[in-house]
Write a structure and sequence with these properties.
The protein is mainly alpha-helical and 203 residues long.
Length: 203
């Protein structure tokens, strides 16, 4: 979860952006571990080496910080999915690349998925509606690819397949952390990608 800067950014701009990005990362980690209500402004500030009130220099409230985390994740998924499809691969290869892309996200940002699943209702109405809009557009990308892989399937079937794939991808990386011997991320990625692709291609 990085903060993008123009090439002409000053050192001060870069430092502020780095602190902003650090707050997003650490807030996701803390919210995932303790829940939105279990994390204070002091906890958030301490995680990045500032005081609790200094968080307000970057975000207007703890809820706004939560919104920034989930809006960025949803936007990144949508833009990344569009880039995959724009490459113009044949249907099954495009689906494979879309699965790999989403699994990359889930493995890298498992905390964000945990936060989304548990604390989406804590967002402001405006942020929640925007997150939902971005997610609907992302789902439609997947359904468009699945229509090409399974031209004989009805829309309802394809929608169920897409959501089943999301469920498997999104739940696995966080849950494997509880294993006694936690496998490397690369191992989790390859197993999960193979399983999801096989399931989505099944007739």
């Amino acid at each position: 979860m990085t903060t993008r800067l123009p090439d002409a950014a000053t050192p001060r701009d870069r430092a502020k952006a780095e602190r902003h990005g650090a707050l997003l990362r650490e807030a996701a980690r803390l919210f995932a571990a303790h829940g939105f209500d279990g994390v204070s402004l002091e906890d958030l500030g301490a995680a990045v080496g500032i005081t609790g009130p200094a968080v307000y220099r970057h975000f207007s409230s703890k809820r706004a910080l939560l919104g920034a985390i989930l809006l960025r994740a949803s936007g990144d998924l949508l833009s990344g999915g569009r880039r995959v499809i724009a490459q113009g691969a044949e249907p099954r290869q495009c689906l494979r690349e879309l699965v790999d892309f989403h699994v990359d996200f889930a493995v890298t940002d498992a905390d964000v998925i945990r936060v989304h699943d548990r604390d989406l209702a804590r967002l402001s109405d405006a942020d929640r509606h925007e997150v939902r809009r971005l997610q609907r557009e992302y789902v439609e990308l997947w359904i468009g690819v699945l229509e090409r892989v399974h031209p004989d399937r009805v829309a309802t079937d394809l929608r169920v397949r897409a959501h089943a794939g999301f469920g498997l991808i999104n739940s696995t990386p966080y849950s494997v952390r509880a294993l006694r011997d936690v496998p490397p991320d690369a191992v989790v990625h390859d197993i999960l990608s193979d399983m999801v692709f096989a399931a989505l291609c099944a007739h």
